[in-house]
């Protein structure tokens, strides 16, 4: 099962018809796109991603309780001061909101344009960017919220236990995967890669912040101000190269090996003098084999070479680190000793929500039958008018045959008829997508069901039924946490609808 990529303007129906892009503009409640086969083995539990959008300042002020100091996650930078807040959007989604000074990005148009480009680069190993805001003097970025802090916190400021060796090797591999994805997306320049740029999601899996893809446009540089850790070529020329990112990755490897900050020049002296024991974190107490430690030290040395051309690329990193992964069957949160947050059980208000939460497909079918098309105001009138004109009798007959097959639980036939109907209708209705989604579920095609449920949401962005059907499909695919999120969202829109 793949992840959901949030480029809804490129979502394709099984018939190959594209959804019109204008349906997605400014729609912050839409979930992204299509089941991506290229992520099939990469992200079985990737969280749902919101479509990238431009937020208003009022929305982000509300999300942060007026930029309350109680919600500040981090503060940094004298040359380019910025603050990161924890925020909550309308649909109950936690986000991280980074607030810059206007001096950092004087050109609002450039800021929005750059953010939109970064927002298209999505991956399970990235903390994905989902929005921005440029109003007046304000410049803000909105990203997924990572609830388990930074690598810096777990590596340098741990309370209960040091970061285990296997987790350190996993972090190195995951961040190499992130860099390799950025390279394939032609985003090879990452600014100031360090332990603060690596964060941990609710599963304890490491992710690379996309904030590092946004350079400070005031001076066009935005690299580390600590010259001891800055790539040599930047000190010489002021330029950042793709190979400069590999150098910074090498400094992260040193952090992982030692559990402290070691200047690269000092580390290379120790390596050349074969005094590598000084590079290894004493708190690990021999959790690693000497062979694996030697390999990781050797990789860091390769990354820290003075000449950029002598450093490896991201493919080399992946091939080198892959064989060092020894405990793939152990979840990251277990390795790190993290407690997973309990799943929130919402108060589902409607019979449909309750039926979906208990996976009662018979009840779901009965409710969809009784509801019919009444949630789509004007849909029946439109069909009646078309019937009077006698211009689309085939479409009406196809709809009738599909509805009869759906009623009689002949779900394979209903899929066939609804598929034909989608190609005949100028604008397919949400209910048709919802009924076909349920039919796909009943014949064991959960991925297609998920796609149709998302299509129904595109047609009606705040329709609880679309969220509940996505929850059913996600649950069938074994993505329980994401299914629960969808149930929560459906319940939230039930409340909004009642109000």
TrEMBL record:
- Keyword list, A-Z: ATP-binding, Cell membrane, Kinase, Lipoprotein, Membrane, Myristate, Nucleotide-binding, Serine/threonine-protein kinase, Transferase
Q: Which portions of the sequence form the region Disordered?
A: 1-25
EC number(s) stated in the UniProt entry for this protein: 2.7.11.1
Q: Which GO terms describe its biological process?
A: brassinosteroid mediated signaling pathway
Q: What class of enzyme is it?
A: transferase
Q: Name one GO molecular function term.
A: protein serine/threonine kinase activity
- SUPFAM superfamilies in UniProt: Protein kinase-like (PK-like) (SSF56112), TPR-like (SSF48452)
Q: Do you know which Pfam families this protein is assigned to?
A: PK_Tyr_Ser-Thr (PF07714), TPR_BSK1_C (PF25575)
Describe the location of the Protein kinase domain by residue ranges: 70-336
Predominant cellular place of this UniProt entry's protein: membrane
Q: Where in the cell is it found?
A: Cell membrane
Q: Which Gene3D superfamilies match?
A: Phosphorylase Kinase, domain 1, Tetratricopeptide repeat domain, Transferase(Phosphotransferase) domain 1
Gene Ontology CC annotations of this record = plasma membrane
Give the record's membrane topology. Lipid-anchor
**Carries keyword Thylakoid?**
no
**For bias kind Polar residues, which ranges apply?**
1-12
* Name this polypeptide is given: non-specific serine/threonine protein kinase
């Amino acid at each position: 099962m793949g992840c959901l990529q949030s480029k809804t303007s490129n979502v394709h129906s099984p018939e190959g018809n594209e959804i019109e892009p204008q349906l997605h503009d400014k729609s912050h409640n839409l979930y992204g796109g299509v089941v991506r086969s290229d992520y099939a083995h990469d992200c079985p539990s990737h969280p749902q991603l919101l479509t990238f959008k431009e937020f208003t300042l009022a929305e982000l002020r509300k999300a942060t309780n007026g930029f309350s100091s109680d919600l500040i996650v981090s503060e940094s930078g004298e040359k380019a001061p910025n603050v990161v807040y924890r925020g909550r959007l309308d649909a109950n989604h936690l986000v991280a909101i980074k607030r810059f000074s206007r001096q950092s990005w004087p050109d609002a148009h450039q800021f929005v344009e750059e953010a939109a480009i970064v927002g298209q680069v999505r991956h399970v190993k990235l903390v994905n960017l989902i929005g921005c805001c440029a109003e007046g003097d304000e410049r803000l970025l909105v990203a997924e919220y990572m609830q388990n802090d930074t690598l810096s916190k777990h590596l340098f400021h741990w309370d209960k236990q040091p970061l285990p060796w296997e987790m350190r090797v996993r972090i190195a591999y995951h961040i190499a995967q992130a860099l390799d994805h950025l390279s394939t997306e032609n985003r090879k320049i990452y600014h100031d890669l360090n332990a603060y740029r690596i964060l941990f999601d609710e599963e304890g899996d490491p992710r690379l912040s996309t904030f590092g893809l946004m350079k400070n446009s005031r001076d066009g540089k935005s690299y580390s101000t600590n010259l001891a850790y800055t790539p040599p070529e930047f000190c010489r020329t002021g330029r950042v190269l793709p190979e400069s990112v590999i150098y910074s990755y090498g400094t992260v490897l040193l952090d992982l090996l030692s559990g402290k900050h070691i200047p690269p020049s000092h580390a290379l002296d120790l390596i050349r003098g074969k005094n590598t024991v000084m590079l290894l974190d004493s708190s690990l107490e021999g959790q690693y084999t000497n062979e694996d430690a030697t390999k990781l030290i050797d990789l860091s040395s390769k990354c820290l070479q003075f000449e950029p051309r002598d450093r490896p690329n991201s493919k080399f990193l992946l091939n080198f680190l892959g064989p060092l992964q020894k405990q793939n069957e152990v979840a990251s949160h277990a390795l790190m000793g993290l407690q997973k947050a309990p799943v929130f059980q919402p108060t589902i208000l409607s019979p449909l929500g309750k039926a979906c939460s208990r996976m009662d497909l018979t009840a779901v079918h009965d409710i969809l039958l009784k509801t019919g098309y009444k949630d789509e105001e004007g849909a029946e009138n439109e069909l009646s008018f078309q019937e009077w004109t006698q211009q689309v009798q085939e479409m009406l007959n196809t709809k009738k045959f599909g509805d009869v097959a759906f009623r009689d639980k002949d779900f394979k036939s209903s899929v066939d008829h609804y598929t034909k109907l989608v190609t005949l209708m100028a604008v397919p209705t949400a209910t048709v997508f919802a009924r076909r989604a349920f039919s796909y579920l009943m014949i064991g095609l959960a991925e297609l069901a998920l796609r149709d449920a998302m299509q129904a949401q595109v047609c009606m962005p705040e329709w609880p039924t679309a969220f509940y059907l996505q929850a059913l499909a996600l649950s069938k695919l074994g993505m329980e946490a994401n299914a629960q999120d969808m149930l929560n969202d459906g319940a939230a829109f039930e409340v909004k609808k009642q109000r």
